[in-house]
Amino acid sequence: MGGDFAPQNVVAGAADALRTHGKITKLYLVGNQQRIEAELRQLGFTDPRLHIEHASEVIEMDDPPVQAVRRKKDSSMCRAIDVVKRGDADAIVSAGNTGALLTAAHLKLRTLEGVDRPGLACLIPSPENVFVLMDAGANLEPHPSNLVQYAVMGSRYSQQILGYQRPRVAVLSIGTEEMKGNELTLEAHRLLKQTDLNFVGNIDGHDLFAGTADVIITDAFVGNAVLKAAESAVRVVGRWLKDEIKKNRIRKLGAMLAGGAFKALKEKADPDTYGGAVLLGINGICIKAHGASSPKAIKNAIRISTEFVEGHFNEHIVADIRKLNAKLQQIPASQSPFETAH
Amino acid sequence: MGGDFAPQNVVAGAADALRTHGKITKLYLVGNQQRIEAELRQLGFTDPRLHIEHASEVIEMDDPPVQAVRRKKDSSMCRAIDVVKRGDADAIVSAGNTGALLTAAHLKLRTLEGVDRPGLACLIPSPENVFVLMDAGANLEPHPSNLVQYAVMGSRYSQQILGYQRPRVAVLSIGTEEMKGNELTLEAHRLLKQTDLNFVGNIDGHDLFAGTADVIITDAFVGNAVLKAAESAVRVVGRWLKDEIKKNRIRKLGAMLAGGAFKALKEKADPDTYGGAVLLGINGICIKAHGASSPKAIKNAIRISTEFVEGHFNEHIVADIRKLNAKLQQIPASQSPFETAH
Lengths: 342, 342
What we know:
The structure is a homodimer. Chain A is of the alpha/beta class. Chain A has a domain at 1-110 and 282-309: Isopropylmalate Dehydrogenase, CATH 3.40.718. The first copy, chain A, is built from twelve helices and ten strands. In chain A, the strands form two sheets. In chain A, strands 3-10-9-4-5-8-6-7 form an eight-stranded mixed beta sheet, sandwiched between helices. A two-stranded parallel ribbon of chain A has the order 1-2. Chains A and B meet through α5, α8, α9 and α10 of A and α5, α8, α9 and α10 of B.
């Protein structure tokens, strides 16, 4: 029931997912039963695998996350996570309030064995590759070892879902040199160098879309800020360009002729292809589709959730993290005080 | 002698500045005397206000900042700051190693009375306004009160150099709501609310270029990351678009016809217009022109430095900061532990 187009886009996307993914054995639609049934009637869709789980409340997009999760126990979001918790479903997909989803999933499903903090992993298309950016929103004050665990989980994600054989892992910093960064990134860098990951060092914002890394590690504050800033910059330049084009007939004609290029670009960078961001490190699969998700985005989010389940993703994570933690215990604490250089 | 096109672009820009700005009484070119003289001969430029100050060393772009400043005492950068320190010049302009410049200027010129840490202020053009982003690179682990001082200095910059009457100040966070942010931004927000600044609250990356604030406050890590990420995203989308256009003759023709729009946009967003970033909070005016500065960028950086000097900028800062510090002392410490919400 969350997101900008609920329940219609969610129901339509779920119906599409059932039509195309034969491997789904059960799909729960959690929310206002009457409204869900109305949407299904509208679509003329029935499927024996479909179950409606009624929930009387809705967590709104601007509800404060922690309070909302505590107070709205019968919300569609909390109830959907309950379905996973009781073992009737393997994954939850939601287009609702991000903070509430991360909070509820973390609280109710708990972290996987060995994982200290879950992290949100985003897939970003660049001209050269599709990279994982993590953490994109879960952990605002992480410890360096959290970032190292994110690197392990992000690598597994890149490998298993995107098919990169040996994903290149980088820390997002303020320069490529090893001694550049803040306390958090300098220590994460030091630890990552000693893991078995394919760690390629620091990158900075300039390299974000340059295809130099397949897994980019950062804290949630920076992750959130860079993704939004990049989106904002592209949007503003696009609008600026439109204004300039409108000033002159010949430019307008030109833009019309070149229109196919703009359209092709939009498709390539279409966030709906990947369905959403994934909260990694919890007992269950939790996918956050963006608030304005189309039916296609919901369908793809459901498809990706099936890939996680089929690939026994979380079992691999537990094994990877166990190996990592054993390794980290052997690494001596940093000797010198952190040097934070420009 | 620093930057990608030294000394030719620096010398050419300085010559242009002397030609157009009658108020400059002395201009020192600090660096390799022979090479500077050769450039001047090439330009056929002489001016009695021009002084060459020889320096035998150069801080390279990839030198580690702190060591470089300590070891290369006869570098053009250190010598140029010495000219300001001994009172023969009011301002330094450099296209060299950013970290070294910030370190040397901070160490040699010291902070202004009442200022705890200097901060780097950048001017960014958006469709709606030109905004100040601060700190863009000086202070990687700031205290919340540093951010509040940056807000005061950034406001004065916006007011005095850009002419905004009552600049709107915002904190860059991960959402506009007051309770969103990390420890640093939550506390800075709390303090800023109680100042006399025109504080408009939090913005997030989406609003960065939306014209909702004239002074945007952040720590150097985030400031560096968002600026570079935004630049990178725009560059990548541009390249992607070019590739799509090349695929097809009609698109190529269209792009040619619409070319004026692309050109107009490039001019609007031209970083050379503003010459560079300014290190605020030190005894002197210190402008960091970007490494690839054109003569025009150097000329504009010099012009802006004259505006700072003419407007007695630093005297205003000292008065503003004195007022702020008196105010901050009256604000009780935060009672509750920080709540870091998604």
